[in-house]
Design goal:
This protein is of the alpha+beta class. It is built from 15 helices and 17 strands.
């Protein structure tokens, strides 16, 4: 039988199709094997990077030793990037299902390589010649040259880490297999952590020389907040000092106290209608009340203006610390001896400065003299180089993290670097990682009874659901205040109890609390175990809820506020608040509902 003219071309076409299909499958198999082999090799390099990174973290205190490890990491990341960026791999990234997995691996490899080669290598090279001991004054002066030399490398490191972090954050995580998604989450966390450190280094190397007078003399007003009489940012500014800087040299130029400032007939600066509606004019009329507004840029500007009016000097910036911060600094300096012979240590600083001084000296003038002596002694220890640099950095970092160390600059360039840091101590800021509440405490007794008060906050989701655009639901914020003063507190010195001022019985503590809800949340319920109810207002997009309680020794009060999201938020809720005499830990809760 002969093949027809019709069937022969069809058979030939079938063979061609079969050969083409076979060739395609072979190429696919070869491509898959190629990608798999290169992926396995890349995985080995990335595992080596992970091991070297742990070593590098341990050696960061010694940049010279870390340099060799960073060089090894750079070789490994470069190899991993090369293995995951060839045309075959790039083509495979477009395939369904497997494509996102491969894209995630290549993105991680590229991010790691960018960090190692572009960000860390230049910074470590420069840092190898820098010693943290440069922070120790020599002959009363800090050498600023090392900080200036590190500026460009530190800024490049921050930019490189920022770009890598954005690239990893942009990955389609829901499309990834669970083990790879976990790895991406781990890498993202490490990059975020590293970015915070690099960003801090970039800001520090840019800010410190200018603040210490590298470009000309500067003057800074230092407020010492007193946590025994609460204000939103910590306590009333009691003692204060003027620090003069010039080319790395620090001088204690002047000292004063709030007793030297009058009650102004009108606010020294315009507070705006929102602040006035919530706090009245008090923050702008009394130096003791400038920290009542929980935004240090407002408090600092008010204090600066009051200092100008009484001393005729326009300062370059305002710094605030509290006795708890001083106790941290004393871990670095060691004990200091005051003019009267007392020895101030990290263990006794808080009790001496917030309570013992009032038991010992009933005259406010004697109290002010004691505070001035303490400030001068600690400053002298720092300026003379008595502080060990590493513990000093640790103390300053801890104080800033707890919102006990605050800084505002009248120089626009400096303030732009400070604005979104913990040092700025602004209103609560929510972002993609967390929605932040604020709980701010203010004394209404005119006393030092808050040394004996304790405040705790808890936050939890009552109901929540997390989707692609964020989390929605209802959350409960619980605030509890307790007066732990001795039962006979009424017999304490009048300066501690207030002596019945503002119609508050001696021994009783009155507290006005201001709760700031995150933007995108609204109040739907509130309960208070004692007190006259709730007030509030709106401040820069935040719903503000206020309440007042009077507590005798041994009494406590609890407020429960229920807030509902009005738009998708972060799944994590965090509560920031007034730094008191207790150590401060941010309270957090997360929505675990898928």
């Amino acid at each position: 039988m002969t093949e027809s003219a019709t069937t022969r071309p069809m058979r030939i076409a079938g063979r061609v199709f079969a050969w083409a299909l076979g060739a395609f499958l072979v190429l696919m198999l070869i491509g898959a094997l190629w990608v798999a082999a290169r992926g396995a090799l890349a995985y080995g390099h990335l595992r080596a990077v992970q091991e070297d990174a742990a070593t590098a973290r341990e050696q960061l205190a010694d940049p010279a030793a870390a340099a060799s490890v960073i060089e090894s990491i750079s070789r490994e990341t470069s190899a991993a990037r090369g293995l995951t960026s060839d045309p075959v791999w790039s083509l495979a990234e477009g395939l369904p299902w497997v494509g996102p997995q491969l894209a995630a691996v290549s993105t991680i490899a590229a991010a790691a390589d960018d960090v190692a080669s572009t960000a860390l290598t230049p910074l470590v090279d420069v840092a190898a010649s820098f010693s943290i001991d440069a922070l120790r004054p020599q002959g009363g002066r800090i050498d600023l040259s090392g900080f200036v030399e590190m500026q460009d490398a530190a800024q490049a490191a921050a930019r490189g880490l920022g770009g890598a972090s954005q690239a990893v954050d942009a990955l389609d995580r829901p499309a990834l297999l669970s083990p790879l998604r976990d790895a991406v989450d781990e890498v993202a966390g490490l990059l975020d952590e590293s970015l915070v450190a690099a960003d801090a280094a970039a800001r520090t190397t840019a800010l410190l020389p200018a603040m210490l007078g590298a470009d000309g003399p500067r003057d800074y007003l230092v407020l010492f907040q007193n946590n025994a009489e609460w204000r939103s940012l910590g306590g009333i500014p009691g003692a204060m000092a003027l620090i003069h800087t010039d080319n790395g040299t620090l001088t204690l130029a002047a000292q004063d106290s709030t007793e030297g400032f009058p009650r102004y007939d009108e606010p020294v600066l315009d507070l705006g209608p929102e602040v006035t509606a919530i706090y009245g004019e008090r923050p702008g009329r009394w130096m003791q009340n400038v920290t009542q507004v929980p935004d240090f840029s407002v408090s600092a500007a008010l204090a600066r203006e009051m200092w100008l009016r009484e001393h005729g000097q326009e300062v370059d910036g305002v710094i605030s610390i509290d006795p708890v911060s001083l106790s941290y600094l004393l871990t670095a300096t060691g004990p200091v001896t005051l003019a009267g012979g007392d020895v101030l240590t990290s263990e006794n600083a808080v009790s001496m400065l917030l309570n013992e001084v009032y038991l010992r000296y009933p005259d406010p003038a004697d109290q002010d003299a004691y505070f001035a002596s303490a400030a001068a002694a600690v400053f002298g220890a720092l300026a003379s180089g008595q502080a060990e640099p590493a513990p000093l950095v640790e103390a300053l970092t801890r104080a800033a993290d707890e919102r006990r160390l605050m800084l505002w600059s009248a120089h626009e360039a400096d303030q732009s670097l400070l604005a979104d840091t913990t040092l700025a101590a602004g209103l609560p800021v929510s972002d993609r990682t967390a929605s932040r509440f604020g709980v701010y405490l203010n004394d209404g007794t005119g006393s030092k009874m808050d040394y004996y008060q304790r405040a705790t906050s808890t936050i939890e989701w009552q109901s929540c659901a997390t989707g692609a655009s964020g989390t929605t639901g209802e959350a409960n914020l619980t605030v509890t205040l307790a007066n732990e003063a001795p039962a006979d507190a009424a017999s304490l010195p009048r300066y501690i109890t207030g002596g019945g001022n503002y119609d508050v019985p001696a021994g009783t503590a009155r507290t006005i609390t201001y709760v700031y809800l995150p933007e995108g949340f609204d109040l739907i319920g509130s309960e208070l175990t004692t007190g006259a109810g709730f007030g509030g207002g709106t401040h820069n997009g935040h719903r503000v809820v206020s309440f007042t309680v009077d507590l005798a020794p041994g009494e406590s009060a609890t407020a429960v506020l229920t807030a509902r999201t009005t738009e998708p938020s972060a799944s994590t809720l965090i509560v920031d608040g007034t730094p008191t005499t207790s150590s401060v830990d941010a309270v957090a809760a997360s929505c675990d509902t898928p």
